[in-house]
């Protein structure tokens, strides 16, 4: 069996999400990586070094400068016939285009797998992670998105895959990129950070996030937020950790002034160590926390910053 | 966009088209698929025999992302950019209640495609493709995912089957002439794409705040038409491609400890080696 992993990247770097997806793919067979982008040769070089990858397909064309679903689906379909499984990290890019690939192949996509049981059987969360379903696919080709926090990352070094150039597919002509507003920050990205400190409605305002940011800077941590804090307008939406935001699983997750709604827990409960700081000792967040501190966050967080 | 151009020209008289009187009628329909799911306020309970999630005597509602889709369609209609909003649901007889919710919000009519048991996004997309062929909408607006199976596939699959462009995870929909600009919530922030019409849009949380149906509108909705169909009417095979073998509770975290000071917390984290 041969599995194709569609690489997540920004044309400069191969993202860690790809490495976790390689681990899931390796459970199914020989692994190839498809790198589609523009000016992305460095990404292909990085992909070729990933342990366990035997071939990298590179399509470097201006058409893929921005990840339009219509174009990414077409280029993936142009090689789909050679593979028994096609996998992509369940990022907003993967979730956007991969169902188009499944539809064109007339197969059911298996979304956000957390475990490969065997070549046809997978585990995936349903109901915002309140239940885990074991599903069996009867399709000849498995089209899969991978919840990357559930898999270890493949080693980024040690492999020596061949790189093969492939042709771009004709443009669809039905969609085009207009622009984007991306948050820029010197802090690590939420989905790859080793430590995350998140604030909730208890923060009271956007300005008050400064005390969390001060702790984050000392720890080299990413800053996140609950949906309540985002909906209250304290921080932008891309801070959001939760079922409808980002799914994270860092070494250490510090929840500050977050009550622990189901939807937030769904996004962070696979973190290795969870700390909850909240003045309400009844807050549900304490039920998933390894360490709980019942305290006023406006006293505790500055004290934490000093103690680090 | 369904564009009906009517020309009244005297072709017998030769080349008078440029001066002939004509009228332009723009009539765009918006199709909004809606799904009946366990109410979002209710925590799903896994059945003890592992066969699924308990659905008996559980409050069911319209999938929250679908409510946002209905709202967006209604706003486009109220802005004079669409003429008719059609809600469609694929599900059991009771899914007519979900359609009535959409009708009470303001949709004009409903289509119920009766199907008992599980319906996969692939099957749903195939049925929707046929509904689109029959209704010729200019836009299909769906929720980005259903909160039961969390698949996040139907809109994208439908777009592929129709050969249409897609704007998923939309936080803003800006309808232009023959095209639509969709601002999308992506991992690093926001992205805007331009799609030729007709197109598929899937709604994210921040697209809008759905209205509540007023009592008079709930009463009025009872008289709005719902057309009943079956997958067979559309020639769609509903056989499952993905079989659920087992549903279980997620692994539980072990109970933690309450520390009594910031110092104790820092000491514990250092001890664990995480800071």
Beta-strand share of residues of chain A: 25-35%
Order of strands, widest sheet of chain A: 5-9-4-1-2-3-10
Number of strands of chain A: 16
User: What is the CATH domain class of chain B?
Assistant: Alpha Beta
Mean pLDDT of chain A: 96
Order of helices and strands of chain B: EEEEEHEHEHEHEEEEHEEEH
Helix content of chain B: 10-25%
Radius of gyration of chain B, CA atoms, in whole angstroms:
24 Å
Count of discrete alpha- or pi-helical segments spanning 4 or more residues of chain B: 6
Structural class of chain B: alpha/beta
* CATH architecture grouping of chain B: 3-Layer(aba) Sandwich
> Are there runs of chain B of 5+ residues with pLDDT below 50, and where?
1-24
Count helical runs of chain A: 8
- The assigned structural class of chain A equals alpha/beta
Average predicted local confidence, pLDDT of chain B? 91
Described by the principal axes of the CA atoms, the overall outline of chain A is globular
Give an overview of the whole structure.
The complex is a heterodimer of chains A (308) and B (275). With 308 residues, chain A is of the alpha/beta class. Chain A has helices spanning 16-26, 41-48, 69-80, 92-105, 209-219, 227-231, 262-268, 297-307; strands at 2-6, 30-37, 53-60, 85-89, 110-113, 115-118, 121-126, 131-137, 142-146, 162-165, 175-182, 195-199, 222-225, 252-256, 273-278, 291-294. Chain B is α/β, with parallel strands linked by helices. Chain B has a single domain, classed as Rossmann fold. Helix content of chain B is 25%, strand content 31%. In chain B, the strands form 3 sheets. In chain B, strands 11-10-9-12-8-3-6-7-13 form a 9-stranded mixed β-sheet, with helices on both faces. In chain B, strands 1-2 form a two-stranded antiparallel ribbon. In chain B, strands 4-5 form a two-stranded antiparallel sheet. The model of chain B is unreliable at 1-24 (pLDDT under 50). At the A-B interface, helix 3, helix 4, strand 5, strand 7 and strand 8 of A face helix 3, helix 4, strand 9, strand 10 and strand 11 of B. Strand 11 (175-182) of chain A pairs antiparallel with strand 11 of chain B.
């Amino acid at each position: 069996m041969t599995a194709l992993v569609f690489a997540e990247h920004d044309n400069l770097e191969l993202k860690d999400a790809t490495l976790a997806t390689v681990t899931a793919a390796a459970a199914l067979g020989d692994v190839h990586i498809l790198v589609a982008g523009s000016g992305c040769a460095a990404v292909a070089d990085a992909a070729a070094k990933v342990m366990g990858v035997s071939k990298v397909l590179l399509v470097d064309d201006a058409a893929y400068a921005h990840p339009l679903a219509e174009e990414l689906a077409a280029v993936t379909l142009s090689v789909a016939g050679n593979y028994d499984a096609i996998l992509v990290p369940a990022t907003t890019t993967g979730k956007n285009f991969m169902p188009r690939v499944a539809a064109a192949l007339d197969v059911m996509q298996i979304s956000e797998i957390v475990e490969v049981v065997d070549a046809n059987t997978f585990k995936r969360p349903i109901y915002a992670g309140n239940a885990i379903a074991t599903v069996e696919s009867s399709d000849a080709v498995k089209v899969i998105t991978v919840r990357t926090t559930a898999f270890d990352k493949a080693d980024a070094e040690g492999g020596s895959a061949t790189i093969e150039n492939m042709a771009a597919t004709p443009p669809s002509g039905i969609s085009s990129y207009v622009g984007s507003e991306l948050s820029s920050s010197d802090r690590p990205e939420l989905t790859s950070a080793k430590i995350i400190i998140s604030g909730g409605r208890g923060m009271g305002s956007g300005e008050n996030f400064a005390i969390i940011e001060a702790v984050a800077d000392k720890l080299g941590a990413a800053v996140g937020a609950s949906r309540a804090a985002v909906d209250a307008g304290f921080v932008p939406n891309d801070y959001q950790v939760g079922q409808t935001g980002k799914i994270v699983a860092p070494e250490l997750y510090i929840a500050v002034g977050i009550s622990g709604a189901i939807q937030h827990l769904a996004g962070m409960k696979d973190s290795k160590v969870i700390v909850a700081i909240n003045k309400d000792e009844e807050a549900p967040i304490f039920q998933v926390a390894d360490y709980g501190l019942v305290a006023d966050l406006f006293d505790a967080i500055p004290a934490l910053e000093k103690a680090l | 966009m369904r564009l009906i151009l009517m020309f009244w020209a005297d072709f017998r008289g030769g080349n008078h088209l440029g001066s002939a009187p004509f009228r332009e009628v723009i009539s765009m329909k918006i199709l909004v698929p809606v799904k009946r799911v366990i109410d979002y306020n209710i925590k799903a309970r896994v059945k003890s025999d592992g066969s699924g999630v308990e659905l008996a005597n559980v409050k069911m509602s319209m999938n929250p992302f679908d409510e946002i889709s209905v709202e967006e369609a209604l706003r486009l209609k109220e802005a004079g950019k669409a003429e008719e909003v059609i809600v469609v649901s694929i599900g059991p007889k009771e899914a007519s209640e979900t359609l009535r919710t959409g009708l009470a919000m303001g949709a004009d009519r409903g289509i119920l495609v009766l199907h008992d048991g599980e319906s996969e996004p692939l099957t749903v997309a195939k049925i929707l493709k046929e509904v689109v062929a029959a209704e010729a909408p200019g836009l299909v607006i769906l929720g980005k995912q259903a909160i039961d199976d969390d698949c996040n596939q139907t809109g994208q699959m439908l777009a592929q089957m129709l050969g249409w462009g897609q704007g998923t995870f939309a936080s803003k929909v800006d309808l232009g002439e023959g095209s639509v600009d969709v601002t999308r919530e992506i991992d690093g922030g926001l992205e805007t794409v331009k799609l030729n019409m007709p197109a598929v849009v899937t709604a994210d949380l921040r697209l809008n705040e759905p209205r509540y149906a007023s009592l008079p509108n709930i009463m009025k909705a009872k008289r709005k038409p719902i057309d009943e169909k079956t997958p067979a009417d559309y020639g769609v095979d509903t056989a499952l491609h993905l079989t659920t073998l087992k549903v279980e509770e997620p692994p539980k975290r072990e109970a933690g400890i309450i520390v009594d000071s910031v110092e104790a917390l820092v000491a514990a984290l250092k001890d664990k080696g995480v800071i």
